[in-house]
Amino acid sequence: MYALTEEGKEYLEEGLPEKNLVELLIEGPVSFDLLKGRMKNFSIAIQWAKKKGWVEVKGGKIHLAKEPKSFPEQLALEKISRGEKVDENILSVLIQRKLAEKSRKIEKEIIFLTEEMIKTRDWRLGKFRPYNVEVPGQKIQPGKKHIVSFYIQKIRDIFFDLGFKEASGPLIESSFWNFDALFVPQDHPGRELQDTFYMKNPKKCKLPDKNLVNQVKAAHENGGGTGSLGWRYKWSEEIAKQAVLRTHTTAVSIREMSKLTPPAKVFCIGKTFRNESIDYKHTAEFTQIEGIVLDENIGFRDLLGYLKEFYQRMGFKVRFRPAYFPYTEMSTEPEIYFEEKGEWIEMGGSGIFRPEMCKAVGIDVPVLAWGLGLERLIMLKMGMNDIRNFYYKNDLKLLREAVLWQ
Ligand code: PHE
Q1: HSE (CB half, 13 Å, CA atoms) of 342?
Q2: To bridge 360 with a disulfide, which of 24, 51, 215, 248 should be the other Cys (CB 3.0-4.6 Å)?
Q3: Residue of the nearest CA to atom 12 in ligand 1?
């Protein structure tokens, strides 16, 4: 671990001065003054050559006194330069002469500076690797919101901004609130097993107070004094008691309406369940963005306005297509424009709640209502192509790399 100093390197290349002097004298003595003026490192050369007994100065001339057979120090310089081992006595002379010194270089360059290196001052023996700012940094994965949670928060903010209050309701719901109170007839195909999940436990739910149940019953059987004829069949309490996984958050809206006094604006973002066969567009559980607006002086154009405002804030163009639901008149399905595919995509249902359902819960002002798909909206926002990514795949890469709210 020794290395040549600058002077050592010079002598390695040009020869030790005393060696050069001796070689000059082989052909005969030379004038002291002449050499003094011309020879490089003369004083060093004469000093060491004398000390070793190789030369004498007589009569102004330098004479060779004893020709050395070899120059072990010159050899040692060569060995040190090659990193080879050197006799210790010779080494100590070279060190004394400042031709060699403890190596300042270690083979490896320093990449990480450690506490140890600082304590031992070994950092001085190394060369620091230059800092390369072009190299990609180490990936860090801090905690991050799930895409769905992130958008739910954004959407809540939009509705709070528009003056809505938030509501929620049970996931396990009675058929009464999920269907009957919405004026969905008891033989409606949407209630069948292939669409709706019925609970085994609890199998039945309690119905609300008798008065409300009777109002709903009357609406179904004869219109309940709304001027409508109703569905004209015998309404069954037992069917209304059946427990289901709510198929839409409109169950929350009607529950809210049974408690509210207009004017009011209420929204709910909640999980819903349908017995779907699963594919890239369908999952058996999904989330709806539900809203109702109750006010005396509002109508269909206000409904379109709210939906347009919402989708615009989400960054989409919207258009409306006529639709049908048992509980609304008029009814429309908003569609939003999917730039990448150049397609309009159906986003959910909306309309003005029918008097048959409003009257039963004591509401006699117009009620604007909508129930919109959340996951589809997020898919379009994120440029995703498979709704199963949200819940079944648990693809961490997707979640980590998701760029939210562009
Ligand atoms: N409940 C309907 C659905 O799930 C959507 C809807 C809500 C339609 C409110 C009209 C009014 O498809």
Answers
A1: 0
A2: 215
A3: 349
